[in-house]
Design a protein that fits this description.
Elements lengths: L1 H9 L9 H10 L10 H9 L8 H17 L13 H9 L6 H20 L26 H10 L2 H13 L3 H4 L7 E4 L2 E7 L6 E5 L2 H8 L19 H14 L11 H11 L4 H8 L3 H14 L4 H13 L3
Antiparallel strand pairs: 1-2, 2-3
Helix pairs in contact: 3-4, 4-6, 8-11, 8-12, 12-13, 12-14, 13-14, 14-15
Length: 324
């Protein structure tokens, strides 16, 4: 039978044909191998090994954790399912496992979408339908700031390494990831004093931060053989978590009942920067805020800090009046 089919294809030709028509007919008879289908788990593995992973260790760890959870849930599914509209519902059903914790629920979706966006950019998917997933977590901490009384309470109880963290955070407004990397090498001389030159992690921008008198005292007290301005009790580098957790622990020991966190120092810093001469637009740019938000935060700080109300509000009014 096989020999008969071969004779048909050959059309009476010999065993080793040379006619082009034979090769065309032969190719049509042979099933071409199909490329292996890319599975979700393999897609996530490629993403985690790519240059698109964030540089910060904390961000990298968070993204890896959620990406692997995403891969585990969709382990046996081909990645092309996300090109179908129904995949949006599948992703929502997966992240609903954390609906008891709105913050985790939203993080699950955010990191899954990050993987899918990368897949589209790299040509591994033609599109996906999981953009702008509904968020459950809503928080506005713009009116939570460290007042002078709060800082005094910490200074009266906490060890020096914790006091230094709070001081530098309140005087610079830097995020925890930037605080723990701050070195004495960032200090620059200016015609009227000194400033810090810092390239921020989140935005990659260079920020020039005036060194206030309180900040100057902390920087000048840094041991000469130490490069990092902030360290743990043993003089070793801090992690973001340890810096935040250390301040939280001593906040509780100092008897402060409000849910003050390390990142809440940014509102305090906005006022400090206004007091040393930065415009509202400069403050907003440094903090990554809108000018209106920066003004609202500073105004709130003045309301909850009676000993500074008059001076702060006068400078804020001047800044607003100048069209900042």
């Amino acid at each position: 039978m096989a020999r008969a089919r071969r004779s048909e294809v050959l059309g009476g030709q010999q065993e080793n044909p040379t006619e082009p028509d034979f090769f065309v007919a032969y190719a049509e008879c042979v099933e071409r191998p199909k490329p292996a289908m890319l599975m979700v788990s393999a897609l996530v593995d490629e993403f985690l090994s790519s240059a698109s992973m964030p540089k910060g260790e904390r961000s990298k760890a968070d993204l890896r954790k959620w990406a692997l959870r995403f891969a585990k849930h969709f382990d046996t599914a081909p990645a092309v399912i996300f090109e179908e509209r129904g995949s949006r519902g599948e992703v929502n059903a997966w992240r609903a496992k954390w609906k008891h914790s709105p913050k985790q629920h939203d993080m699950a979706g955010t990191h899954a979408v990050r993987v899918l966006n990368w897949a589209v950019e790299e040509g591994k998917l033609s599109e996906h339908h999981c953009h702008k997933l509904r968020q459950l977590y809503e928080v506005d901490r713009s009116e939570i700031v460290w007042t002078p009384a709060d800082r005094d309470a910490i200074d009266a109880k906490a060890p020096e390494w914790v006091r230094r963290i709070l001081c530098v955070a309140c005087e610079t407004g830097l995020r925890p990831g930037d605080l723990i990397k701050l070195t004495t090498g960032a200090v620059e001389q200016t015609p009227k004093g000194r400033r810090l030159r810092v390239r921020t992690n989140k935005r990659g921008r260079v920020a020039h931060i005036p060194i206030t008198p309180k900040l100057a005292t902390t920087i000048d007290a840094t041991p000469r053989d130490r490069l990092l301005i902030l360290t743990n009790a043993s003089g070793r580098p801090l992690t973001e978590h340890r810096a935040s957790e250390g301040l939280r622990q001593w906040r509780d020991k100092a008897g402060l009942s409000r849910d003050l966190r390390l990142q809440d120092c940014r509102g305090t810093a906005a006022t400090r920067l206004l007091n040393v001469g930065l415009s509202l637009s400069e403050i907003a740019n440094h903090m990554g805020w809108s000018i209106r938000h920066a003004a609202n935060v500073i105004e709130h700080y003045a309301r909850v800090s009676p000993n500074e109300t008059d001076a702060v509000l006068v400078k804020l009014a001047q800044a607003k009046g100048g069209g900042q």
